[in-house]
Sequence to fold (118 residues):
Amino acid sequence: MDAPHAVGVPDPAVSGHVALEVSPLPGRPGIRASGEISEATRPAWEEALSELARRHVDVSYVELSDVAFVDVAGVTALAVTAMTLPDGRMVVEHPPPQLPRVLEMFWPGQCRIEVASR
Fold:
């Protein structure tokens, strides 16, 4: 996961498709995502989170300032990944507004995820 990769790239013949690009964060452990996290892009999101968990040491960062939307299943994948970390925590930076609400609704008091809001 050294180079950015795009999934769900729009097909010129089919409108309405969204893309998700995930790349490593420069200078610190973590990933940066841009686009939308939804049913169409969830496999790549889950793959990126799995890779992040494999490389996790103490604190991992997930930078989401360029993510326009994340669905409940995308937040679930994030929460499950954080809960399965052997130690430490995950810091989610600049998430879309629905992410902290969904975390609070389904995983109140989750101490493995720290959200740094927009």
Summary: The chain is about 30% helix and 30% strand.
